[in-house]
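wait is this the right file?? whatever heres the structure
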């Protein structure tokens, strides 16, 4: 069983930065996809960034150039560096691990961490 624990959220002014961390209780395999999602009240959870095997990354258009996802398999941790934060980045951010095998995939989620961008 994989357990994910996010940290690093908080209150920041517009233009500021935060770094989110997601620590896993088990080993991360290089083939696992790790991602960050966010959700605001009344809206669906949306993908922010994902990193897959080989370090390939993908970002939502709204965060490209401002956010960077990275992973440290030795520390079983994935990070989200968020720069130039905007009020519309305010949300609960969730860490996700997707472990795929032939014909199936399992998703694991953290409990979420609140990010509030406000002056």
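ok assuming it is, sequence goes like this
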């Amino acid at each position: 069983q994989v357990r994910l624990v996010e940290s690093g959220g908080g209150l920041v002014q517009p233009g500021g930065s935060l770094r989110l961390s997601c620590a896993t209780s088990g080993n991360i395999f290089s083939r696992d996809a790790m991602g960050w999602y966010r959700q605001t009240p009344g809206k669906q959870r949306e993908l922010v960034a994902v990193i897959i095997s080989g370090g390939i990354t993908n970002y939502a258009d709204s965060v490209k150039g401002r956010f960077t996802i990275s992973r440290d398999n030795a520390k079983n941790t994935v990070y989200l560096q968020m720069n130039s934060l905007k009020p519309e980045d305010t949300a609960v951010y969730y860490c996700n691990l997707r472990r795929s095998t032939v014909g199936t995939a399992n998703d694991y989620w953290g409990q979420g961490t609140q990010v509030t961008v406000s002056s």
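The chain has a mean pLDDT of 94. so i think its the right one actually
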